[in-house]
């Protein structure tokens, strides 16, 4: 028998595949051909897949292996979706608010509800970045302000070839008003902050009955795959990416810029512009960094594929690189400060351009000048915040 190669990776992939085998593909949802999921461990081995035991992450989440971080929902790895609780609240005037919960700075309730604990959300309460709500006797929230218009039709017109980015024209599929933020502070219940993205507004349950998919995107957010107010569930499309070389899935719901919101299929949320950026892990910072490439390698079948040019042309994930996530680092926040990078002509001509999967790998390339900011400018924050709660870690 051949010696065991990368034993931990084998165990991790085994659990991943066993989970995926029970997933049922949602109707109308295409599985990305360029999956970040690990290959089957039985490749190149003399034993079948069934010989490999559970991953170390099943014993301790910090160890290598697949791990569901947002535990409040059921993940379908085949479809790349999560089905999670749907919540109904209201504005002061009675208009209905439909939302989900993903993160909170309340550690106890994060553990109890299966949400992500994000201590950094405490420092997001600046300007209009956090709105307020009151907890009612019937356990619903009454929001003081903030609405979303879901009527716009999502539209993106690629730039002239060969540079699909920046697009010629963008229209986000949903737009928040000046007071809307997904971040909500419950003023009469400890003042904790919750990440509560709105997915529908001012509509009755019967207008949201799309339990088998194909929802009306003039009334729900573009990330919704299926919604069932009768059973109070909603299925959301996930995005593939990386964090410290670990392939991950995350949910992208809001962005502070209309271009980023259109690219992400998220809600344009001007209030998130009040989130301070550029400070990363310094004291009182509410953000973590996300690394996005403009001109990464292209081609649907290219194992190095990455970036916005590729995402626009190939129609798949840009494979962004996230900073710290729970179980890997202590600095997680669902509020990501976009660092937009561009490979230089020299780095491309020398063959250095490739898929980046880890923060310090990227910073090293930027330090050497192979990656710059847009148009050759300084590498770093471009002042855009995206709300992307982490959901799943493959390894």
Can you describe this structure?
The protein has 2 domains: 7-69, no CATH class; 84-393, no CATH class. The strands form 4 sheets. Strands 1, 10, 13, 19, 20, 21, 22, 23, 24, 25, 26, 27 and 28 form a 13-stranded mixed beta sheet that branches. A 9-stranded mixed beta sheet has the order 7-6-15-14-8-9-4-5-16, with helices on one face. Helices cover 12% and strands 27% of the residues. By secondary structure, it is an alpha+beta fold. It has helices at 7-20, 107-113, 258-264, 308-314, 345-349, 359-367, and strands at residues 67-68, 74-76, 81-85, 87-91, 96-99, 103-104, 116-117, 131-135, 141-143, 148-149, 155-157, 169-171, 174-176, 183-186, 193-195, 198-201, 224-228, 233-237, 239-243, 246-250, 254-255, 267-268, 288-293, 320-322, 335-343, 371-372, 381-387, 390-393. A hairpin with a 4-residue loop joins β17 (224-228) and β18 (233-237).
Task: Spell out the blueprint of helices and strands.
Elements: H1 7-20, E1 67-68, E2 74-76, E3 81-85, E4 87-91, E5 96-99, E6 103-104, H2 107-113, E7 116-117, E8 131-135, E9 141-143, E10 148-149, E11 155-157, E12 169-171, E13 174-176, E14 183-186, E15 193-195, E16 198-201, E17 224-228, E18 233-237, E19 239-243, E20 246-250, E21 254-255, H3 258-264, E22 267-268, E23 288-293, H4 308-314, E24 320-322, E25 335-343, H5 345-349, H6 359-367, E26 371-372, E27 381-387, E28 390-393
Parallel strand pairs: 4-9, 6-7, 8-14, 13-22, 19-24, 21-22, 23-25
Antiparallel strand pairs: 1-28, 2-3, 3-18, 4-5, 5-16, 6-15, 8-9, 10-13, 11-12, 14-15, 17-18, 19-20, 20-28, 21-27, 23-24, 25-26, 25-27
């Amino acid at each position: 028998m051949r010696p065991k190669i990368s034993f931990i990776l084998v165990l991790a992939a085994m659990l991943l595949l066993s989970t995926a085998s029970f997933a049922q593909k949602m109707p109308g949802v295409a599985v990305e051909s360029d999956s970040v999921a690990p290959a089957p461990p039985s490749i190149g081995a003399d034993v079948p897949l069934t010989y490999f035991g559970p991953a170390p992450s099943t014993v301790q989440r910090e160890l290598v292996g697949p791990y569901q971080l947002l535990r409040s929902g059921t993940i379908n790895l085949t479809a790349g979706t999560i089905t999670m609780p749907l919540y109904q609240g209201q504005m002061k005037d009675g208009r209905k608010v439909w939302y989900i919960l993903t993160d909170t700075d309340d550690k106890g309730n994060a553990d109890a509800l299966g949400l992500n604990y994000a201590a950094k959300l405490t420092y997001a309460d600046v300007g209009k970045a956090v709105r307020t709500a009151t907890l009612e006797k019937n356990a619903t929230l009454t929001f003081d302000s903030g609405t979303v218009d879901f009527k716009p039709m999502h539209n993106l017109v690629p730039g002239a070839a060969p540079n699909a980015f920046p697009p010629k024209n963008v229209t986000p599929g949903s737009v928040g008003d000046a007071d809307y933020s997904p971040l909500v502070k419950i003023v009469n219940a400890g003042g904790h902050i919750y990440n509560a993205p709105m997915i529908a507004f001012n509509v009755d349950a019967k207008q949201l009955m799309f339990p088998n998919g194909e929802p009306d995107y003039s009334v729900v957010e573009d990330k919704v795959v299926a919604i069932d107010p009768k059973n109070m569930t909603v299925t959301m499309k996930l995005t593939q990416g990386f964090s410290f070389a670990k392939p991950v899935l995350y949910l992208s719901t809001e962005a502070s810029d209309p271009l980023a919101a259109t690219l992400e299929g998220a809600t344009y949320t001007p209030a998130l512009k009040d989130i301070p950026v550029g400070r990363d892990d310094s004291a009182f910072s509410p953000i973590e960094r996300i690394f996005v490439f403009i001109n990464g390698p292209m081609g649907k079948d290219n194992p190095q594929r990455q970036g916005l040019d590729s995402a626009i042309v190939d129609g798949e994930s840009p494979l962004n690189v996230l900073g710290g996530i729970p179980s890997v680092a202590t600095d997680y926040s669902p509020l990501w400060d976009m660092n937009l990078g561009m490979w230089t002509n020299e780095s491309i001509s020398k063959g250095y351009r490739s898929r980046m999967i880890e923060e310090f790998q990227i910073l090293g390339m930027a330090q050497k000048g192979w990656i710059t900011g847009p148009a050759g400018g300084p590498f770093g924050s471009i002042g855009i915040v995206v709300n992307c709660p982490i959901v799943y870690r493959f390894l």
